[in-house]
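Hello K.,

You asked for the raw outputs rather than the summary table, so here they are, unedited. I folded two proteins back to back in the same session to keep the settings identical. This is the first:
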Amino acid sequence: MTKPNHARALAADLLQINAIRLSPHVPFTWASGLKSPVYCDNRLLLSYPVFRSHAIEGLAALARNFHPLDVIAGVATAGIPHGALLADRLQLPFCYVRSQPKNHGRGNQIEGIVSHGQRVLVVEDLISTGGSSLEAAKALQAAGVTVVAVIALLSYGFTEARVRFEDAGIPLESVSDFLTVLDVAREGGYISEEEFEMLTPWYRDPRAWSDHFALTSSP
């Protein structure tokens, strides 16, 4: 596992640049229609060289758990820049995996070079349910490589994701997680104690949280 200082440092960086926003009283609406008290955009890290470097150091610490590695693979699109930066740090080849094969040209789903039997580490920016990361892993496995793990900057810690990765037999690790973000946010004054108590149940069952909010906020 990554060292605790990486987890807390990344959480603090994301909160400082508003890449993570916590709003239990006025939640955001996800594409699925669920109400969420959390909005996360790790791509904002790319605009801050110091924080970007912190993030890659955290990913590199995780990557050491799975050496030797042959290739780093980013999940399109948000995992591409962080994966490429990690590959550069580790001096390893890089590729990225599209959600679907292209409908023109060579019809590639994997962009870059991978060879049968190589050990590939998949990089994602954020894990919620884990669906897109596992689809990328399946595409790589179909190409004959060994997916040693999926690593991410941040994981919400949903049970659904944990179960899906366990069923797929693919390790999942993240530099930081939602509970660490909550602790750092409370300590840093980003949220009140009341808001902390409202946010804590969300990661256990986001759908139930959304349904409860809809009921209690109805006129």
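The second followed immediately with the same parameters:
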Amino acid sequence: MTAKSLAKKRLVCYNAGMETRIVAFDIGDRRVGVAFSDPFGSYAVPGETYFRAGNFSEDVKAVAAIARERGAQVIVCGLPLNADGTESAQTEKTRRFIEALEKEAGVPVVCEDERYTTLEARRDLMASGISAKKDKRKKAVDSLAAAYILEGYLAKSKRRQDMKEEMKEESNNYDDDNIIELIDDEGQTFRFEHLMTFEYRNEWYVALTQVKEAEEAEETEDDEEGEEVAIYHIVGEGEDEHLETIEDDELLDEVFAEFTAQYEDFEDADEAASLEPDEEE
């Protein structure tokens, strides 16, 4: 294969991977508003409005058919909630429709809070003058509400993606010279950042913090506790040197207090204060 044909193949694969069509529905008792994303999942476009036939199964199949026609890989459905965020009878009705739709469509369905979306759609339609034409308003308000639902989902997805990129960048910024790998008894390898090797009562200890991958860091982003520190006792010399966990809780507290005191001499005091001992160690 020539370099030119290889480059073309890579470009085709890259473009194919970027195409993620998302379809959103604003599910009502009489009408279902439809919106869809551009191929890159960047913005929402209002679509048609489906007028329900009054038969649950028939309506589910019809909405699923719309999703397939649009090439949906993900479906986003608005979930009606009360103003205070609690669920209502309408919420339960919509959930039943969503569950049936997911089975029928065969693609993931995500629920998105739809509070105020219909109100916003009507307000925008009034500003555009469409509100004066009743038939057009009914057809437009639901699809526009679906577009607002989809926009909310896309905005959240973008924030999550940006956060993943930031976490990945932070992970890549670790100083390789300061990273060590430890293998446990089951043969699993863990990466740690070396914080400090220090002495306490004529014994040597090492303080480490585990290097988290982007996905793991995202899961713990809302954790208000400080960064966990693992402290090990350095035992032996030369080739026999190895790390042992500190089983004595009282000794662990003393060693951690010593580490904190010494760490404050070299690092910012606020950062040192945020660190907490890993109780599992």
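Helices lie at 3-18, 56-69, 89-105, 117-128, 134-172, 214-219, 249-266, 269-274.

Happy to rerun anything if the numbers look odd on your end.

Regards,
P.
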